[in-house]
Amino acid sequence: MSNQTSNPPVAVDGPYGPVRLKWHKLRTHLAEAPFKLSNLALGWQLGASLEIDILATADDRFAVLHDPTLGPSTTGRGRVPRIPIASMRGLFHRNADGAPDPDSPVLALAELVDPLRRLPRAPSANLQLDLKLLEGQTLPDSAVTDAAAAVAGLADAIVVGSHHLDDARHLVAAIPGARLGYDPMLAVSRQRDLRDPERLLRHIERRKTGVSLAYLRFDAIVAAENQGFPLVARLLDLGIETDAWTVNPGQDINDSTLRTLVGARVRQITTDVPSEIFRLIRSL
Predict the structure, then answer these.
(1) Tell me, what DSSP letter sits at residue 152?
(2) What is the 3-state secondary structure (H, E, C) of 203-239?
(3) Residue 251 pLDDT
């Protein structure tokens, strides 16, 4: 990547090669509002791994939102599954101070990604759609159709990731060329035995068909390594890369943690502060 002094980094060199720094919710700074249009355009041209969350609305359109309710993270109110996408027009996401950001409008997936078709894409750029489903919710076929139409022509840059693997498979099948990722951490929270890294590996292995990425909480990776079990390396043997989430500066993130993650051969780190994580890993 060029011009690292002025642009947020997209990767950092690790002991086993580059480690991608995925911009969580398109953020490059922790205090930013999520899903900033300028960050999406910048990351696309720099070659960043980018992530957005998608939720189905009342009319089975996908909105770019993380939470099941519009408030307090946006200027709107109400539960997302009960509101049609047109009623969200004019809403904005808020930054860490609670101020609405005009560069972060609440948009349908189709509206958010449409400008990418007119921008030069760096070869390494990719966009993860983090599929969110509420408890007991199923993914309607009409929402799948909406997502497929929204990313038409961009499929080779799309990664669909989710806790809900069957629904993610359904969505990926409608987007030929897109990649599939699985986050098993919801299953881990519900099945205590999956905290054992060998059991977690077997859980993922049974579901590995078509999966190219596993999204693991960074502390689960560190715990496995500290137990002497190379979970990330074993996943690589299955052809599955690991994304460690969410790695931001704080009391749980120190040199030892970062050294363990890159030494474990994670291929991607999810962060809201790529410049700071880049600096910390470079200084190890």
Answers:
(1) T
(2) HHHCCCCCEEEEEEEHHHHHHHHHCCCCHHHHHHHCC
(3) 84
